Structure formats: C-alpha cells, structure tokens
TrEMBL record:
It is an enzyme of class 3 (hydrolase). It holds the Pfam family Glyco_hydro_1. Coiled coil: none annotated. It catalyses: Hydrolysis of terminal, non-reducing beta-D-glucosyl residues with release of beta-D-glucose. This is Beta-glucosidase. GO terms for molecular function: beta-galactosidase activity. Gene3D superfamilies: Glycosidases.
Amino acid sequence: MKYKFPKNFLWGSATASYQVEGGVNEGGKGVTVWDTYYHSEDRGYTGDVAADHYHRYKEDIKLLKEMGHNTYRLSISWARIFPNGYGEINQEGLDFYNDLINELIANGIKPNVTIYHWDLPQNLLDQGGWLNRDNLKHFVDYAKCLFENFGDRVDIWTTINEPASEVMGGFVQGAHPPLEKNLAKAFQVSHNMNMGHAMIVKLFREMNMKGEIGIVLNPMPVHPASESNEDKVAAEKAYDYFTRWYVAPVMVGEYPKAMLTECIERYKSPIIEDGDLEFLKENKMDFLGINYYMRRVAAHNESGNYEKINEQFKFVKVPDGLYTDWGWEIYPEGLYELLDDIRKEYGEMPIYITENGMGAIDKIDENGEINDDYRIDYIKRHIKAMHKCIENGIEIKGYYVWSAIDILSWTNGYTKRYGLIHVDFDTLERKIKKSGKWYKKVTENNGLEE
Ligand code: BG6
C-alpha cells in the first residue's frame, strides 16, 4: 500500500444538524436563527425538511456502515435540547440524540460530536447572541447537559464549528444571521466565542469527562499574488485576518499583535477583560479540528477603504488554478504548508481533518448512478496531502469527508452537493455515489493504493 495510514486512524464523514435534520417544528425543538433566516423572506429553499435525517437517521447510518466508516461527525441542535437556549430541558431532544449515538455505536461508528454548528436558538439572538457575554453561561449549561447525557458514550467532542464563518458570515458580509456588517461587533463575537470554547474545555476537565475535546477552525494558507511588496503585505494581512486571528487564541491564548493593535485602534474591539488571555491559555484543548477546503491568493486592494481591515487586501484567481463550480481553488498542497506553519508558530497539537470535500453540481446518469469522478479525485489528492503531513511528523488522527449525505448548503441551497450519498430532495431517497463506493475501499484498506 503506497499511502498507508497509522493503525487506529479514523475514517468518516461529517454533517451538521441544521443542514441535514429537517423536522424543524418537531420533537419540541425551538426556533433557531436559521429558521428565522429562511422564513423571513423567500430565499428559494428552507431547512424545514433538508435531508430529513431527523426521521431517516437509521437508514443513513446503515449507509455509513456500508461505506466502511468507523467514525461520523455530527452536531447537536442546541434548540432541540433547550428550545429557548436555556431553562427547561426538552427530553425529546435528548432522546433523539441518544438514539442517534446508540445507533452509531451499535454499527461500529465512533461519534465525533460538535456542540455548536451555527444553529443558535433565536431566543438567544434576541438577547444579543454571541455579542452578549452573559449568554456564555447558557452555552456552558448546554454543554454540561450534553456531557451528562452523552459523555458515557461520546469521547470526541468539539466545542464550536468555525467561529470565523460565524463572525464573517454574520457580522462582516451580512450573509448569515444576524445579517450585520459591523467590524466592531465581529471582533467582539470572535473573542466571546473563544471564551465560550475555553469555558467548555474547563468544564470538560472539571467533570472528568473521558476522551478529548477541541475546536474546529477553517484556517487557510494565503499566498501573495506577486512578488511585489504591496501584495506580500496584503497576503500577510489576509493570513492574520483569516487564519492567525482564530488559531492563535485557542492554541496559545494570544491574538496576532499587529492585527489586535489595529482592531483596538480602529474599532475599540474586541474588549478583552482582565484575565481573559490567561484563561484562554490555561484551558488548552486536546486537538485542533481543521476544515480544509482551499487556499487564497491575495493582492493589494487599490480600490479598498483602508480604514477597513478587511479591505486592505483582495483575493484574486490564479490563471492556471483549478477551481470548483463555486470558485473555490482546489489546492491540496496547501494542507501541509498550513499545518506545518501552525506547528512552527504555535507548537504541536494533534489534528483531526474535520471537513474536506467538494461542492459540485452532480448529475445522475441514465442508469441512475452519480459518477462523481471529480470528487474522487479531490478527496484522493487531499488524502495524499494528509499522508505527507503524517510522514513529516504532524499527528493527524482522523479524516472526515464533507459531507456524508447531500446537505443544505447555507446560502447555496440544495444545488451545491457535497455528499458521498446522493439525496433526491423530492423523494428523499438515498443512493451511494461512486465517490462513496470508492471511499469504502480507502477506509477498508486504511489508505490508498495510488
Ligand atoms: C464549512 C461549514 O464552512 O463549509 C459547513 O462547516 C459548510 O457547514 C461547508 O456547508 C461548505 O460551505 P458551503 O457554503 O459550500 O455550504
């Protein structure tokens, strides 16, 4: 075997509650910010049914098993457990996830559970959401409830999925709830999320939970578009903004200095209270989850508003680059560079690749098959890149394809497909794609032949 992986390596795929479950008004679930988002105006699709995983999880787990998975990453919907974000526990929500976790384990699939993947209970947003530091106590109570109820069977936990996307989607671009464009708020939210993460790590230790806990980030390598000094400065700024800003606080309890100074000068944000950075430092996680999709190439933004930290650079496409239908550059080489840079800058930390995959418009052929060779090629190239990381001493413990089944892509709806399993969104029928069948061989062989 040319690309053999370490013994006990975990092979699986991932989803997130809101993107697959549906059943938004069932089982006592409360309203989330995404329910509000899809229903406040017609966006052409909603998460009301999604892949109907809420009702079909047993069938889905059977298919995961058929694909040789030994792990699966899922997230829990806060509003199924606490419909208002806090207060009375909704037993039906606990029952649902208990059944789901038990079903996974019964099929030899290790659950990797994300506590928060963006589906904030609406009631908490009404009280300021992540901007209101008081809400962190509800986040901790919610995590405590999960640890108490599922901690005997779950031993890989992640606190938050991609704070960067929540911050940028929700508070910079105004594309995700709460649809704001306010950099001061954005930086405060990112600091508050880091504090929430560290509080949960602390709780995990205090409760003597078994297993390990980490966070999932989406850092990316950023290259300058040219050798010009201006482009190099732009790339450095973009790397601070997209990568260091999120990696540094959870790894070493610091923010990148130049960017922090600029944020405080320009936006008086984030407000970091006395003791916060020590708290981040003291409550160190066990692993770093990496969602890796692409690299960015940055150039000086001549039309930028330089007061705005995110307009001091712009992203450009490289002429010979390979891009997905959505313009995401396919650049597996960047994975080693990224992880190597992170360890050089912040020290060693075990890694899980918690998401990696290709969003595409899949076609069904005349025999009803989905021959997604492009996805096989994408995953194969990234598995090789991951192998290179391991050979060079980076500890990677598992790999999760995004996604297990076709999901609701937050702002792209149901046309951007990621799944190893196809979902017919009219009939909700499932079918393993060619990539799923191919991935089964990888998991069974614990590696790649070529
Ligand atoms: C990650 C998220 O950022 O990227 C997923 O964790 C998301 O929830 C995935 O679906 C792909 O993004 P998109 O916008 O193509 O759905």
